[in-house]
Write a structure and sequence with these properties.
Strand order of the largest sheet: 6-3-2-10-9-1-19
Number of domains: 2
Oligomer: single chain
Largest sheet: 7 strands, antiparallel
Structural class: alpha+beta
Shape: globular
Amino acid sequence: MIQPNTSWLRTAVFFCMASVLLLLLAGCGNDAVASDSDEVSMPEPPSIGTYAVTSAHYLATEAGMEILEAGGTAADAAIAVASALSVVDPYLSSVLGGGTWALYYNAATGEVTSLDAVGPTGSLLDVEHYAERAGEFGAHQAIVPGAWDGWMLWLGEYGRLDLGDVLAPAMRFAEDGFPVTEVMASRFRARQQNIEMWPDTAATYLQEGGRIPEEGDTIRIPDMAQTFRELVAVYNDGLMGGRDAALQAARDHFYRGPFAEAIVAFTDELGGYLTVEDFHGFEAQIVEPISIDYNGIEVFQNPPNSQGITQLLALNILKDYDLSQFEMDSADAVHLQVEAIKLAFADRYHHIGDPDFVEIPVAGLLSDDYASVQRQRISMDSVLEWPLESRLAADRLSVIVDMHPEDGNTTTFHVIDAEGNAAAVTTSLGYQLMVVGDTGIHLNNRMRMFSIDPDEPNFMEPGKKVRHTSNPYMALRDGRPYILGGNTGNDMQSQGQVQQFVAVVDFGVTAQEAVERYRFESRAFPQGVPPYVVHNDLRFEDGFAERVIRDLEARGHVIGEGVLAGSAAMLVFDSETGSIQAGADPRGDGTAEVR
C-alpha cells in the first residue's frame, strides 16, 4: 500500500482543525510515522461515483488505478501512468527524456489548462550541419527533454501525493521486471537496428546471447529504477523546506544537476547540439488552451507549438454539416471528414510553429467566419488536392520529395479521478530507442519534426520549439468533462481524433467502439516530418466496404495502400449519471479500467 506523506497530512490537519482529535486517536498525528507493518489508508475523496484510467499498457493502467485508490488526484495518477509507460513501453515515451502536451480539468475551479512540457533545440544547432544528417538516427536529433519539468509542475499544481508515491509502480516494474508481450516483441524487432547500434541501449535490452527480446521474456531496467530512486531521495531531502521546495529540488537535480550533465556529455560525444545552459534555462509552463464550440460542446486543444489546432480546424468546418444524416462509414461521411482534414492540415503547414518565433493567427484560424470560408471550398463530387493555399495566407509552398513512412514513438492516456478532475495526455519520444549511459533515460529525437526550409514556420533554429505532433483533446459539455481523447501516429493524431470525436458525438457510438473502428488516413498535404512528402492519396484500414472505397475513388480520391492507424484511447463521462465509458485500443496492449 502507498503510504501517505506526512507533509500532506500536516497541511490537512492545519486546514481542518476539526479532524485533529480524530487523527490523533487514529495514531496519525503531526509527528507520527507509520511502521512497515502498519496499514494506513488515504482519506476518502468526495465521490462522483466512479473513476477511470485508459492507457496503452495494462501495467500502466494498473499503476494509475493504484494511485487513484490511494487517494491521488488525476494528476498524481497521470504521472504514475507516464512513469510506468517509460518502463513497460520504453519505445513510446519517457518521463525523463521525452516531451509532453497535456490538458487538465480542475473540478474545484471548472478550469481547463494546458501543459507545455516540450523543450527547445540546442543552442549549438547548425542547420547546415544538421541537414547533412537529417535522415539519420542519433543524438543530434535530440531537443531538451521537457517532460520531467512538466510532471513536477503538475504534481505541485494539481497533485496530492509525494513523488515517491507516484513513482512507486514504475520503480517496482523497473526493478522486479515485467513480461514482454507479443506487441512489445514485435516493436523490439522493428527497432532492432536502434538497439544494436548503441552500446548502452544494447546493454539495457538485449537478452542473453545478444538476442532481441521475445514474447515471454522478462525485462528489468535497474538503471532506470536507480534514476527514479535518486530523484525521490532528492525530493525527500527537500521536504524539510516544504513540498514546493522538494519539487524544485527534483526539477533542479535533473535540469541543473547530474542528469543534465550526463545527457550533454552523451550527446557531445555523438555530435549533438545540447549544452548544460540549455537545460539550466528550461522551465515547463501551464498555458491557456485553445478551443472551439462544436454545437454546444466546448472542445479544448493544446496551443501552438502543438499541432492541436489541426483537430479544431477540421471540427470547425464539420460542425455545420449534419453528419448524423449519413451512415458512419458511408462515402459521404468519410468524404466530408477527409476534405475538412485536408484544409486543416494545409493551415497547419502554412501557419503553425513556435509562437515565440513566428506570428500565428490563432483567433482568425479558429473563427466561425473562416470556417465558413473553408466549408465553401468543399464539394461532395470532387476532391481537394495539394497544393492547397491558406485563405489567411498563401505564400508557403515547398519542393516535395518522397520518403518512407514511419510509425511514431508516442503514447496517449487519460484519467478521471473520483473528485471529477480529469487529465488528457499525449507524450512522446519521437522515433528512436536511445539509452543515455547508465541512467536508463531514453533520449528523444524530436529534431526530425522540424523543417530545414527557412520559408516555413516550422524551420529549425537554435532555441526554437518544434511543431509538436502531440495533442490530446478534452471536450466539455455543460462545463463538465465529456470526452478525453487522443490518437498517436504523427499526422494521424489529429485525423484519428476527428474520426473518433464525430463517431461519439454525431453517430452515437461508445468510447470502445470509437477507438476500435477502422480508420482512414489522408496524405494530401505535406507530412509532419521532413522533407514533407505529399502523396495526395487516401488510405484505409481493413474493414471499409469495397463499395464505399470505389465511391470515393469515383469522386477523385486516389486510393493508397496501407495505413498508419496509430493507437487511440478515450474516456466518455456522463455527468448526469456519473458513469464513464472507457475505450482502449486493441491494436496494441491498451487496457482501460473503470471503478
